[in-house]
Amino acid sequence: MNKKTLVNGMLLVLALLLVVGMAYQFTPAIGNLMGSGGSSSKSGTPALKVNGSTITVEELDAMKRGNPILSSTDGGVLEDDFKTYMVAQQVQQKLLVEAASDVKVSRDDVNAEITKIREANDLTDNQKYQDALQQAGISDAELREQVKQQLAVQRKVEALKAAVPAATEAEAKFYYDQNKELFQNDARIVGRWIVVKDAKKAAELLKQARGGADFAQLASANSEQNKDRGGALGPIENGKPKPVTAVTLPTEVANAAFALEQGGLTDVVTTGGKSYIVKVEEYLAPTTKPFAEAKADAVKAVDEQKKNQATEEWFDKLRDGAKVEVVDPAWKTEDPVVATVAGKNILYSEIISQVVNNQQVAGLLQQVPAEQAAGLVNGMLKPGLVTQTINAYATPVLVKRLNLAITGTRQEQVAALSAYGARNVQVTDADIEAYYQQNKAQFETAASATIAEASFKTQAAAEAFRSSWNGQGDFVQAASKAGGTVSERGEVTGGGETLSAELNAAAFDQPGRNVGAGTLSPVTKSGERFSVLYVTDLKPKTTEPLSAVRSEIRAQVLASKQAEAGQRFIDTQVATLKPVNNLQKILDAQAKRVAAAAPKKPAATEEKDGAAGTATPEGSTDAPAAEGGEAAPPAQE
């Protein structure tokens, strides 16, 4: 293993340790704070102080180097954003560590965690371990200090969660009522099957069953499984097979059988070297468990949400009470209030955090220049994120106002409030029919066939060959002998790119063609040549009937209608709180700062570049005022 691999492995494990060790599942808002890199060393060049604790330039630089998104820009709007993000994340990390400073962590605890790191990375050899530390730019003492801090924060959070009161029955019942889809029994079927090894025999048995033969008798006489009970899928009870769930059948067989909600026979399904036919006698749709049966799971879910909420509120207090002092002017950043709702200020860094952690932004930065990416992020992504964040901060206030037993983090409460707003949504047969008609292509299986193409220079030559070949002998040899150029296309899917549009139509859109038989297409012009197709093993296009996909459509339509109704409800409720959105003011001020701080270009270059969109300089202390005249203070003073 080379040193580069060791370093990468070490850094990965450190990141995992910082995330998992902190038990960050409690809230997305704090999820990445400790995984942002940096050293616990007190040495280095001071950049900022948080409640007296120093953040060094080296820590900030290491954080930038360790994150491909943060290190992807050099100047402009996004670098200004990323700088604000780094400072905010480091500040929050310091707050967590400070808050857990009263938690005792023994040397043995730290040693145990270090041992796990070394064993997981094949670093039990002392020299390998020292080499990895040196390459990562961290000492053993610094690593141990980081581990100690993470364990302390983890235990602080665990103690905080342990003190949260258990869910009440009212809270559990409300959760159950709003999430009944989480408490459903699986769908079941009552049925029988025939299982044989010979696919041809299975096809003949299916023909007999469709012709009216008694399925149980066919199964008793032919099936390799359950023949002693007439192929019944479940044990016989009171003369009738017991229902079974999908997991009792091979996946492909279950998919075919459980699609028959109106009952009936499946086609022959071949999988695992065997062929199956299932007769569904009765389909039993999923049912919701009664609350008494689901109560324990509902209580557990609400307990976890209440713990998440307590942790988020605890961290909000830490952040609100932070005193940040800028030591190095180069690390002074702007973090104004981007929005205000229900008396809560939302800082711009919270929006930037969501930008940095958006996977689409990472892909965007790899495809387009940073200036262009900034325009897209500012114009398309940030406005939506601000609206979502306003909704999140407003929701706890709305929950109290509506007197709802909703708990959890802000995001969890948004989801619950949306479900409450959509609680009366219904799906009608007309909705299902309309969806099916508008999206029929979604339920189609394209035609396919094995195709050989013979092309000729002239239409006359192609017509002569088509008229003369009687289907006897080898098509390739006959076409070649007639002067054609032959291409064996193999198995072709209708509408695909293997054939031109004209040849696709000639192969698959001819009426009256025998399925499976070898047939010749009409002479068809394709480009500058004239082709004749020999089509065998034709399987026509099929469309699943509405009866087979009704439940699937119902679920899709219901989810869509619920999402729309829930969002409308939240938007209406949030509007009553009259939120203030300062995003555009902040972006305008940021553009001026970035332009002022950017190195001056020669006049000719500036004319070529033109307006570069919304850029952002660093170092300005001007913070835009919120609507209504309220000043939007920067996070660092």
Would you write up a description of this structure?
The chain has 22 helices and 20 strands. It is an alpha+beta fold and about 625 residues long. The strands form six sheets. Strands 3, 6, 7, 8 and 9 form a five-stranded antiparallel beta sheet that branches. Strands 14, 15, 16, 17 and 18 form a five-stranded antiparallel beta sheet that branches. α4 (about 105-120) packs across α6. The protein starts with a helix and ends in a 28-residue tail after the last helix.
Low-confidence region ranges = 1-41, 610-637
Q: Overall 3D geometry?
A: extended
- Average predicted confidence as pLDDT: 86
Question: What is the tally of helical segments?
Answer: 22
| Beta fraction | 5-15%
- What is the straight-line distance between the termini? 47 Å
Helix/strand/pairing class, anyone? alpha+beta
Largest sheet: 5 strands, antiparallel
Extended strand count = 20
> How helical, in percent, are the residues?
40-55%
Backbone CA Rg: 34 Å
Domain PpiC: 186-282
Catalytic activity: [protein]-peptidylproline (omega=180) = [protein]-peptidylproline (omega=0)
Protein name: peptidylprolyl isomerase
Region (Disordered): 220-241, 591-637
